[in-house]
């Protein structure tokens, strides 16, 4: 199996014409019916508004400066202890 993702610019909200195939990932195994897109953080420029919904996808998780958006709500499944009544609490 291969997880096919498209990249987009979080500032302009446009596709970057970069496609990435990710093989042997947990996301591919756990969420085979989800569609993913990857947006990158622009240091000192990207705001929370830039990370709002992209097309039909919302931010689900991050890895470094890569933000993973998906069409299904998988965040609650990945981080169940962070949610109480669908509200995420940040622990500092």
Please outline what is shown here.
It is built from 2 helices and 7 strands. It has 92 residues and is mainly beta.
Overview of this structure, please?
This protein is mainly beta and 92 residues long. It has one domain (2-88). It is 10% helix and 40% strand. It has two helices and seven strands; from the N terminus they run ββαβββαββ. It has helices spanning 26-30, 75-78; strands at 2-9, 15-23, 36-40, 58-63, 66-70, 83-84, 87-88. The strands form two sheets. The protein has a five-stranded mixed sheet, with no helix packed on it. The protein has a two-stranded antiparallel sheet with strand order 6-7. The longest helix is centred in the first third of the chain and has 5 residues, at 26-30.
Residue share in helix: under 10%
- Strand order, biggest sheet? 2-1-3-5-4
When the domains are counted, the total is 1
Unreliable parts: 84-92
Could you give the distance between the termini?
37 Å
Write the H/E string, N to C: EEHEEEHEE
Principal-axis shape: globular
Roughly what is the average pLDDT, rounded to an integer?
Answer: 82
DSSP strand tally: 7
β-strand percent reads 35-45%
Index terms:
92 residues; mainly beta; five-stranded mixed sheet; two-stranded antiparallel sheet; 40% strand; globular; disordered C terminus
Task: List the SSEs and their pairings.
Elements: E1 2-9, E2 15-23, H1 26-30, E3 36-40, E4 58-63, E5 66-70, H2 75-78, E6 83-84, E7 87-88
Parallel strand pairs: 1-3
Antiparallel strand pairs: 1-2, 3-5, 4-5, 6-7
